[in-house]
Amino acid sequence: MNINGIGASAYPATGSEERKTQRGMAGENFAKQAAEAAQTQGKATAVLHGADEGSGDVAIFSGAELVSGSSISVYKTQDFDPENPVYKVKIWDGSGRVIEKMVDVSKVDPQNCDTAEMYAYTAQLKESGRGSFEDTVLKAAVVKAVKDAESHSGAWSFTEKIDWVNVVKDIMQSKYCYRDLKGYMEWKKFLGLLDK
User: Fold this and answer.
1) Are 156 and 65 within 8 A, CB to CB?
2) Are 81 and 161 in the same domain?
3) Nearest Cα to 155, choosing from 55, 70, 92, 97?
């Protein structure tokens, strides 16, 4: 007996797999669809900045926020000293205005720092070998997205100081409540990296 014999004669059993697969696949159109959705909301697409032409600085992290059109990059400067890591962070707002900030990661407090400071801090964790990209910078980006979602503003504020440790603990609690123990342990590892 097939699905047609269970009172669903209007639902064709054959060929539905192909349609379902086509609907469920983002494929190469995902970026285009996301950009169109942002433009429909009256927002522009973001420009992902990376190389700082002519400066000799090396980009070690770049990220863009589609809704606001903002972008952030963390650079190792030519005079970078691994014993005293200070990173250059450049932030572009949706209008293209640039803010540049030097971040001494030894002075970053994960319980009271802004996004630029946290991205420099987690980039240093990655660069020093204390964690992978997924365990450091990517986790910071997820925490930022969670904080933005909580504020319901969708804003990508790079200057607002937040308690990143507290947000990570909230994410861990959520993982634990939903019995995602693997996820819980991954976030616990990140929390350990935030402890100085």
Assistant:
1) yes
2) yes
3) 70
